[in-house]
Design a protein that fits this description.
Aldehyde Dehydrogenase, Chain A, domain 1; 15 helices; alpha/beta; 18 strands; single chain; 2 domains; Aldehyde Dehydrogenase, Chain A, domain 2
């Protein structure tokens, strides 16, 4: 099997990479485990030194890594460079905090010495997608390696250069040669890799069907899994919201990474009293984004990562319109090469349409009308997904209450759109997955949380005296 790169902006075929046989990837897993056995003995200062060097290299070569991302999956170059820089922030965060996060926790009061220790578990398999080809890898790798684990990466088939680039980056930064390995294999090999006796856990970012398959396999083997899956993030636009601010933020949140983000703003649930004005402003902001060559610094929207993804997106738009949605802008496949799709706004979106029921992975905004706040909350939660969401309102107390008690998701932002941050736990509920990445919660996912109780050796128990008989 070969992995061939196709530039989504031009359709041109680029470099190809040979895939691994079962013997080759199995040897890589064994080597990663052997590296882990030595790495787990190192102190946090040693680990942090290598992780900080990783951050320095990421910053020095951000443009080089950015071009690699853009060539393989079409991300606008300015966003790709920013992604490499964000990875550096993640590395530094865990270099600075891993020792504190994994420090033994004393349990008191207790007559005996009791504490909780956090120990590495071994080789962690990561099954990662193409849309953030560096950041989503580093979200797992930085905490996993700082905890003393090893990592093996099965990346998306259209970003093999990114996958190998990350492996080489860790090696260049001073990590042991085999501690982080890229496995150039297909999706059909994932089940066999999970079965490998030296793979102790698996983390996946991807679609809900992929998550179900990985969870079923890992569960059958009693191996830990963390899943970050799809999303259809709702944003409530209340009657007192600053509509100009909300529309600008929502358009930016919808178009991040050309709309190819699990936590992109997707469903805009607008109170009817302000819907018309919000739609006008949203269309203006969406149309102001510049679509074009992703290698040009001023480009806001590049192509979708593959032509089949563009065609699937267009079908969702067409099917929604056929069921009664109204097209306010976009919605037409442009002529010429590349997997481009324009910023698109649909309104009159209702249940039963793809734009309401499904994850829309591209630059398409769905506007849904709500009668009041309770109705807006009902619509927000009327989804199988629960990754992120937001509320735009001048009433901060109401916004906070809706965020905490109302919207069913792993993250909610009030008067802003969801972004991942190393300091905040990241993950979802319902069909958006389980477990958490980032923050202290992320590093605790792949350690053995071990209870330790130490007692002084007790004095021997004396035999009772003889009673009732003689020698």
């Amino acid at each position: 099997m070969e992995f061939e790169v196709v530039n989504p902006a031009t359709g041109e075929i680029g470099r190809s990479y040979p895939g691994m046989s079962k013997e080759e990837w199995s040897e890589a897993v064994v080597a990663a485990h052997a590296a882990h056995l030595e790495w787990r003995k190192t102190d946090f200062a040693t680990r942090a030194g290598a992780m900080r060097q990783t951050a320095r290299i990421l910053r020095m070569r951000a443009r080089e890594f950015g071009r690699l991302m853009t060539e393989e999956m079409g991300k606008p170059i300015k966003d790709a460079i920013a992604e490499a820089q964000k990875c550096a922030l993640g590395c530094e965060y865990y270099a600075d905090n891993a020792e504190r996060f994994l420090a033994s926790q004393i349990v008191e009061p207790a007559p005996k010495k009791s504490f909780v220790a956090f120990q590495p578990i071994g080789v962690v398999l990561a099954v990662m997608p193409w849309n953030f080809p560096f950041w989503q890898v580093f979200r797992f790798a930085a905490p996993a390696l700082m905890a003393g684990n090893a990592g093996v990466l099965k990346h998306a088939s259209n970003v093999p250069g990114c996958a190998l680039g990350i492996e080489n980056l860790f090696r260049e930064a001073g990590f042991p040669e085999h501690l982080f390995r890229t496995l150039l294999v297909g999706s059909r090999d994932v089940a066999d890799i999970i079965e490998h006796k030296l793979v102790r856990a698996v983390t996946l970012t991807g679609s809900t069907p992929a998550g179900r398959a990985v969870a079923a396999k890992a569960g059958s083997l009693l191996k830990k899994s963390v899943l970050e899956l799809g999303g259809s993030d709702p944003y409530l636009i209340l009657g007192d919201a600053d509509l100009e601010f909300a529309a600008a933020a929502c358009a930016k949140g919808r178009l991040v990474n050309t709309g190819q983000s699990c936590i992109a703003a997707k469903r805009f649930i607008v109170l009817e009293e302000v819907r018309a004005r919000f739609e006008t402003l949203l269309v203006e902001n969406m149309n102001a984004a510049k679509m074009g060559d992703p290698m040009i610094e001023t480009t806001d929207i590049g192509p979708l990562a593959r032509h089949d993804l563009r065609d699937e997106l267009h079908k969702q738009v067409v099917d929604s319109i056929a069921k009664g949605a109204k097209l306010l802008s976009g919605g037409q496949i442009p002529s010429g090469p590349g997997a481009y799709y324009p910023p698109t706004v649909l309104t009159n979106v209702t249940k039963g349409m793809p734009a309401y029921d499904e994850e829309i992975f591209g630059p398409v905004a769905a506007v849904i009308s709500a009668k009041n706040v309770d109705d807006a909350l009902r619509i927000a939660n009327d989804s199988p997904f629960g990754l992120g969401g937001g509320v735009f309102t001048a009433d901060l107390a109401l916004g906070e209450r809706l965020a905490v008690e109302g919207i069913e998701s792993g993250s909610v932002f009030v008067n802003g759109t969801v972004v991942s941050d190393p300091k905040l736990p990241f993950g979802g509920v319902k069909e958006s997955g389980y477990g958490r990445e980032l923050s202290s919660f992320g590093i605790h996912e792949f350690v053995n949380i071990k209870s330790i109780v130490v007692s002084a050796q007790a004095a021997p128990v004396k035999a009772p005296p003889n009673v009732g008989h003689s020698e």
